[in-house]
Amino acid sequence: MAVQAMLQERIRVAQELLGRVDLLCDRQSQDVEGRAKLCSKLRAELRFLSKVDAGKVSIKESHLQSTNLTHLKAIVESAESLEGVISVLHVFAYEDTDGVKQSLVVDVVANGGHTWVKAIGRKAEALHNIWQGRGQYGDKSVVHQAEDFIQASHQQPVQYSNPHIIFAFYNGVSCPMADRLREMGISVRGDIVAVNSVVTEDDGEVDDADDQGAESEVVEDKEHFDEGVDSTDEDDNGELCMEHTRVDRDTIVASLAFPTEVKVDVCKRANLDITTLITYVSSLSHGSCHFTFKEQVLTEQAAQERREKVLPCLEEFMQDKELYACQSAVQDFRVILETLGGPGEKARAEKLLARLHVVPDQPSDRTQRLTTSSKVNHRSLMIFGTGDSLQAVTMTANSGFVRAAANQGVRYSVFIHQPRALTEGKEWRATPV
Questions:
Q1: Which residue has the higher pLDDT, 303 or 240?
Q2: 302 Cβ contact partners less than 8 Å away, ≥ 6 residues apart
Q3: Which of 109, 120, 298, 361 could be a cystine partner for 87, CB 3.0 to 4.6 Å?
Q4: Contact 352, 316 (CB under 8 A)
Q5: Using CA atoms, how far apart are residues 154 and 44, in angstroms rounded to an integer?
Q6: Closest CA to 406 of 378, 382, 384, 383
Q7: Cα distance between residue 426 and residue 433, in whole Å
């Protein structure tokens, strides 16, 4: 492809990808964290290509073929292939095997955090050569990157399960590399291609496979891929020879697409905090939201409830789960209920409490290491820490505590919902809408 034609194609692709990123948020029915970062990278690529088109920058055809656009396109396509995408280009902090703090960029975080995707746009030949130690200085093989992903995922559980890792190859991956990744527990997506073996003397030169008359390895079972790694052997004359592998991208062994449904380990325990107990029994949540209250915050919550009912959301999450609450949460809830609750709210509260396993406060070890502040108080530590000890997902409207704890390095498994206050006792002086 001529340079100018390739340039125009790259510009068209960059513009198209920007539009697809915007549509991604609409399809996921939520804002995708990192979307702005991804768009920024695409715009930077587009600006560079536009400068080339205007003659301000001179580059070779090979440079156009190796732009960041290939990787960015792979990220967009991966995000489009999965449900529940919550972020792209997300940076996770973790400690390596030596205890040194590291960071890892996950291209797509999907299925509510249960799935991590690394999108790989490099060609299968380059990936295989790097893995075999024939890359440029500083190149890190995909297998080494997989080790980093596994290490990081074990330190970032979602609902007490490690995220499932997918490596998506958009320009193919060799059979032996796919084998190795799957042995490590990594799911592979994309075209898995065969390799050609070339035997040469140990002078380090590898002739073209066709000139050597090498034949492609035959893989009869698509569920099993032979190891095609380099090996050494002696020929009939006793001379040391080296077997090299060359990727044959025309011989596709298997094409593995993203699954239409991804099974995740869903936590079957829910820990209700005070804000959830109040929201669940609130008069606002049970139809009495058509009021303008004297208090602005209550008026705003009533308007929110008219736009989006909170109770169905809570009920759906609580369905088929064991429900827990710690003693601190229940005691304080009863005090608030006695002070502010109306007859209907109190009656609903008794029914709800009868469904719960009320357990003693038992904060987890990591919770007890948190430093208290305006957002991190003793009561929250007891509630969230007990949920952590129970390995339950804590239901809460207290997003401030969740963020403050995360800033101290403790990320809780939570289900965050909109808050609702007890309003039945204030309806008499409210104005109907």
A1: 303
A2: 284, 289, 290, 291, 292, 293, 423, 433
A3: 109
A4: no
A5: 34
A6: 384
A7: 15
- The model's pLDDT over 175-193, given as tens digits with 9 standing for 90+, comes to 999 999 999 999 999 999 8
Average pLDDT over residues 216-228: 34
Task: In whole angstroms, give the CA distance from residue 167 to residue 169.
Answer: 6
* Three-state SS at 45: helix
Average confidence score pLDDT of the chain: 84
The helix or strand, by DSSP H or E, that contains position 231, with its residue range, turns out to be: strand 231-234
Residue 249: pLDDT band by 50, 70, 90 thresholds?
Answer: low
Which superfamily does CATH assign the domain made up of 269-432 to?
5'-nuclease (3.40.50.1010)
Q: Which of 70-79, 151-160, 246-255, 359-368 has the least mean pLDDT? A: 246-255
Taking alpha carbons only, the member of 415, 372, 375, 424 closest to residue 397 is 415
State the virtual CA torsion across 84, 87, 90, 96 in degrees, nearest 10.
Answer: -20
Whether pLDDT at 225 is above 80: no
The ranges of the chain annotated as CATH 3.40.1350 are: 68-256
| Intervals of CATH 3.40.50.1010 along the chain | 269-432
Neighbours of 10 (CB within 10 A): 21
**What pLDDT is stored for residue 27 in this prediction?**
67
Model-wide pTM > 0.85: no
Q: In angstroms, rounded to a whole number, what is the distance separating the alpha carbons of residues 149 and 163? A: 10
State how far the alpha carbon of 52 is from the alpha carbons of 10, 71, 97, 387, in Å.
11, 20, 44, 56
User: Cα 145 vs. chain centroid, distance in angstroms?
Assistant: 16
Give me the sheet containing 87-95, strands edge to edge.
87-95, 101-110, 115-120, 164-174, 187-201, 240-256, 231-234
Tokens linked to 46: 């587009």
Q: What are phi and psi of 380, to 5 degrees?
A: -65, -35
CATH of region 68-256: 3.40.1350
Q: Which amino acid is at 36?
A: A
240-256 and 187-201: which strand pairing?
antiparallel
Higher-scoring residue by pLDDT: 30, 305: 305
Indicate the SS3 state at residue 99.
Answer: coil
Amino acid 398 reads: N
Give the contacts of 422 (CB within 8 A, at least 6 positions apart): 278, 281, 282, 283, 336, 337, 340, 341, 342, 345
Strands 357-359 and 322-326, sheet pairing: parallel
pLDDT given for residue 188 in this prediction: 93
The phi and psi torsions of 325 (rounded to 5 degrees) equal -155, 145
Q: Is the CB of residue 401 less than 8 Å from the CB of residue 273?
A: no
